[in-house]
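Model: You mentioned two targets. I'll fold them one after the other.
Researcher: Yes, keep them separate.
Model: Target one:
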Amino acid sequence: MLKDESGEISPIKLDSIHVNSDNALIVLDEYSDVCWVWIGRNVSMPTRMHTLRMGRSIKRSGYKIGPTTIGLGIADFIEMREKNDDNPEVAANIDKFRDAISGSWGYEDKFLAYKEDYQVIPSGGAATEEPTSPETPSTVEPEEAPIPSEPEDEPLPPEPTTPSPVASPSPTVEPASEEVAEEEELEEAPAEEGGQVLELSGEEKAALLLYSVVKHSELVYAERIDEEGKNGFKVESPGQLVLTVEIDGNELRMHPSDFGESEISDAIREEYQKWV
């Protein structure tokens, strides 16, 4: 059993007492050929994402404790988020996970758990107790996947050019008349092209908001929210911005509405308002 604490993965003794709302855990189960990942209800989004990333990496390369590498090339990866335990599939996986780690365990190298009653029947017929390789984590801790660098800023769309007014057939045209004609044409343009001046949809505004956050942040976490008919997301720039967004038709309902009080959140708000 591995525990993720503030980005640090460390082994702990296999015990169901650790399966609680405050912990993020990885269990390499060689008996069931499953890498279990438990995310408690109170675990922060950055820790959850780090645990999932490390769990998938460890599933491939295993984890090493002492001379033993455990979980190398395990077949299945099962993620369990406690906050989704009202989902029948998630609830069933949680029950299977609790069953898998229950029972009496022996330990090698302090953290490698094996079932004390696990037996191998040799060809002679006598039952011989033989501890299997532990069902808990152990392998060279894999390198974390590199955090993606901030995407390059998209080029701003070119400003529309206003067609020059048609020259008057009169041989003499005063400059003042040209300026008046140009101003009138600029004022009339929106009316003529009124069909193109449309309000942005909620999804388009959400995309521009995410672009504004990415442009002014070195690291961004995003989480989709789809509960009780609400459609939206939560976006976080660690130490700078935590913003919950609900998409309601063409409107975005944001909390906090002022984006927070940091310099980065001010820059993000100004960038977003510039677009919408």
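Model: Target two:
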Amino acid sequence: MGGVACAQATTSGASATAAAPSGAAMPMGSGPGYHDPRSPFKPLQEVEGVVSWKLLSSVTVKADKSKVIPTFPSGVLALNQRTVKVQGFMMPLEPGDKQSHFLLSSVPTSCSFCVPAGPEGLVEVRSKTPVRYTLDVVTVEGQLAVLNDDPYGMFYRVTDAVRATR
């Protein structure tokens, strides 16, 4: 698939970069994600009643020694511990055609070895019942946790999720 250049391993320790829409380089796996216009998948559309990726990605971050500290806007904090709907592209975390633990991304993956977005463009999902893997947009409904200090670097997690209609 013709997507953003995948991060390549380097021996010099330099961080991998990709071209942003503006042409400027940005670290791979940072930002809300870049939807390559050559992608066979259409970009996500805003849907009433579904949390907007624009809102989720409005978090700001500050580097502090060995971690990133998120600062969430009031609109995001208002969703903490609330039942919400989130849509995105499924990234399985386990083998199999049905997933109970997966990520939703604001943009489709273009490389099986690359994360398509930074933590502001990803939501970790733990579902009540397994959800069949698909390349199509998936919408889930569950309890959103806004994470200030997740050991895995995630900013958002939805638990007790069920597959929802948009």
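Researcher: Noted. Anything on target two?
Model: The mean pLDDT is 83.
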